[in-house]
Amino acid sequence: MKKNLAIMFIIPIILLSGCSLKNKSLQNSVQSDINFEVLKPTETAISPNKTAVPELETWQDAYAEFLRSFPVHADKDVQTFSLRDLDNDGVIELIIIESDGVVEALLSVYSYDDNVYKVGDYTDPKIGVAGLRVSNNSMFPGLFTLWWGGGVEHYGYLTIQEGKLISEDLWYIDRTKDLPYQFELSDNIELVNESINAHPPYDYSENLLEMYLLEEGNIAEVFRK
Predict the structure, then answer these.
(1) Tens-digit pLDDT string for the chain (225 aa)
(2) CB 86 within 8 A of CB 77
(3) Which of 14, 68, 110, 177 is most buried, most CB within 10 Å of its CB?
(4) pTM score, two decimals?
């Protein structure tokens, strides 16, 4: 059920929240034996586009080889990657963001089943500059998104359901009036609340998904290859 909630205090407008770029390994954050309950949002799926690379011994081998052969596009020459199990099925997904560093950007999710294949793509006006948030709660393994424009902040969620990338709009804040208003778009109150928790006010570095520049040194460090 949608609700209009007047917010009686002012949260500063989020102007920029960059992804955390690292030149180190994921340490122990990547687990291949995750087996949690799968969250099932019921929104329109983004059509998958499977593109395979030659079969290799492990998903780590396959992802490392895939990244080393990933093309650089002239209009999106800033490339970053990360790893996360987006649906708690025990298979780690490869997340790649291609950006021009200013406006245009595309997030692509790949998975592994003997070969690397594309699960789907996602974009919004700020995907290249706004940080993706994650939760430590196993019920919410996906990515929390944020973009803004015209005095309105839009909050959403990305996950995988039945092999497809799912994008769900959760809530937004309209700051064009004297008092800001929060409007809930999803009936999943737990998911909305988790999104709110993932974006704490006054601290833009909390809960960020670590992204790594697509460089040989980072590939070798992350995959130990």
Answers:
(1) 444 444 433 333 333 344 445 544 333 333 333 333 333 333 444 444 444 444 456 999 999 999 999 988 777 778 999 999 999 999 999 999 998 766 778 999 999 999 999 999 999 878 877 789 999 999 999 999 999 989 999 999 999 999 999 999 999 999 999 999 999 999 999 999 999 999 988 777 789 999 999 999 999 999 986
(2) no
(3) 110
(4) 0.73
